[in-house]
Design goal:
2 domains; Rossmann fold; about 550 residues; 12 helices; 11-stranded mixed β-sheet; Jelly Rolls; single chain
């Protein structure tokens, strides 16, 4: 909650649009460095507590930064809050407004001429564009937890339309603009749902809004930080920002358990005091701080309490290990098939098929447990699984993950939703009852079969890049090799646990929280996963030496 009353100012953009901003000033005569944040969530809501009820705050602790001698400027992007114009969702006008506003801040009499970017999620998404334009007053970016490629990061994961941005996100954004905590109501006429539906391929609409295309133009110092649990949406953007930016740069990935934990972390003063303030103090105040001594990369290892340092991402000590799918039962989980996963594929059936939609699916691809509705939802019972034997020792991974999938379908198109999970040991009596063991989803990947084309110029051995600029139907019954990039991750599979791979053609709001993909009525047929010597479907993991 922000207790300080800001001064509301008007900034005139280059096309004459009047933009509104809230300026929060510290005590004293100045001049002061400024932190600059911009979003469509309107600064009138800053008087609310930054709680899970209001995830879209994501400003960081404004009042606390003022006590540290920083001015804080919060811009309502055009078409939102008190700003004029039409909301265009990261369009060119919105990007240019950032340049104009930053230069306005740097020219104010109370400013020392040094401006830094701040903020999580949408605020971070805009920081990539701030940096790519290199306004003279911008001196650094604290880019935390923000995607850089909206097409591939949830709007169309793997070419599959997602529901978060055109559905939940746009509904709640319009809602908080209509009913702010204070200030005038604002109606946003933009039909974001229709805009996104009109662009199912990666065309000029998406290229204009893709910061990944311009991250290599960022020259100012940047601290890229993120949260592994946001693999649905933001993780790859943070990593791409670190790898693509051309100025001084460092990266930190934390292990907050979920989106709610990630929001709480960024609202917490302790996080800013330990992580971001030394960065800002160094580049905006010219102070010598411990930020200078931090390694280039720091990352939490999920599944443990370990925080590691590295000189590069992925870490320099990674080796890539191939795990082959097979049809031999693991006898450890109840699923459509209960297949196996091993470094050497044993003899057995050469393929595994399933028909869809499955009659037991209730919410997306999720069905009920062994006792029906009374036993609750079971996310894995009615999907394909390929599970390893219990691990003989700990297995730590850090880096990109890849799926090489040989598959065929009775249809001319199909979808692949891939999950890599950590399956925990289970008591024998529970297994006998058919209750599935506890599992933690480690990472996810997606691909629509008709989007299987790969751009060799932008791909690496472990990170296939799909251009998504055309659809190429598949021939029913023909076997294809699909290369699927799984979201990068650092995780510790402990001794006695199992690695589990889950494959199906959809997901569910039960298992995906805010980020599901609706199951289409025209998705009917049979898909076959091939795992023979000739067609060795496999999961490739980045095994780290620690």
């Amino acid at each position: 909650m922000t207790n300080t009353r800001p001064k509301i100012v008007t900034i005139t953009a280059r096309d004459g649009t009047e933009l509104a901003a809230a300026v929060y000033m510290p005590q004293g005569a100045g001049p002061f460095p400024a932190l600059f944040a911009a979003s469509p969530y309107r600064f009138d809501n800053n008087i609310l507590a930054a709680s899970p009820q209001f995830l879209w705050r994501e400003t960081g602790p404004i009042d606390w930064y003022m006590t540290q001698g920083y001015a804080y400027v919060h811009l309502d992007v055009r078409g939102s809050g008190r700003s004029g114009g039409h909301f265009g969702f990261l369009d060119r006008k919105e990007q240019e407004d950032l340049y104009d506003a930053i230069e306005w801040v740097g020219a104010q009499p109370w400013s020392n001429g040094r401006v830094g970017g701040i903020g999580q999620s949408y605020y971070c998404m805009l920081q990539w564009f701030m940096g790519a334009q290199n306004p003279p007053a911008l001196k650094c970016l604290g880019a935390h937890d923000g995607l850089a490629d909206p097409y591939r990061a949830n709007c169309y994961n793997g070419g599959i339309p997602g529901d978060f941005f055109p559905g939940y996100w746009w509904y709640q954004n319009r809602f908080i603009n209509r009913f702010p905590a204070e200030g005038p109501a604002r109606e946003q006429e933009t039909d974001l749902t229709a805009m996104m539906a009109a662009h199912p391929l990666y065309d000029d609409f998406w290229k204009e809004r893709c910061a990944r295309e311009v991250q290599d133009q960022i020259k100012v110092p940047i601290y890229c930080s993120g949260v592994w649990s946001k693999m649905f949406i933001h993780v790859r953007g943070v990593i791409d920002g670190y790898r693509n930016a051309q100025g001084p740069k460092k990266m930190r990935m934390s292990g907050a358990p979920n989106a709610w934990g990630a929001a709480a972390e960024f609202a917490n003063v302790e996080f800013h005091e330990k992580v971001l303030l030394p960065f800002y103090d160094h580049y905006l105040k010219g102070l010598k701080t411990e930020y200078e001594d931090r390694p280039p990369v720091q990352y939490a290892v999920r599944g443990s309490q370990i925080m590691r340092s590295a000189q590069t991402w992925p870490p320099e000590n990674v080796r890539y290990e191939r795990w082959l799918l097979n049809a031999n039962p693991s006898a450890s989980v109840t699923s459509l098939n209960d297949g196996g996963l091993a470094k050497e594929s044993p003899a057995g059936e050469a393929a595994t098929s399933y028909d869809y939609p499955n009659p037991g699916w209730v919410a997306g691809v999720v069905g009920f447990g062994p006792q029906g509705p009374a036993s609750g939802f079971d996310p894995v019972r009615r999907v394909l699984t390929f599970t390893s034997a219990p691990l003989a020792s700990d297995l730590e991974i850090a880096g990109p993950i890849k799926m090489e999938l040989f598959a065929s379908s009775s249809a001319t198109n199909t979808d692949f939703f891939i999950k890599v999970s950590d399956q925990f040991p289970q008591a024998g009596e529970d297994r006998a009852k058919g209750v599935n063991p506890f599992a933690e989803v480690v990472s996810r990947g997606w691909l629509r079969a008709s989007h299987r084309a790969i751009d060799p110029a932008r791909s690496t051995e472990m990170e296939p890049y799909h251009p998504h600029d055309r659809e190429e139907p598949i021939n029913p019954g023909q076997i294809y090799k699909f290369e699927i990039s799984i979201e990068p991750m650092a995780y510790l599979f402990k001794q006695g646990h199992r690695i589990r791979l889950e494959i199906v053609n959809g997901d569910s709001p039960v298992s995906e929280q805010l980020w599901p993909h609706f199951y289409r009525p025209d998705k009917t047929g049979r898909d076959t996963i091939h795992h023979s010597v000739e067609h060795p479907s496999s999961l490739i993991l980045p095994v780290s030496g620690g």
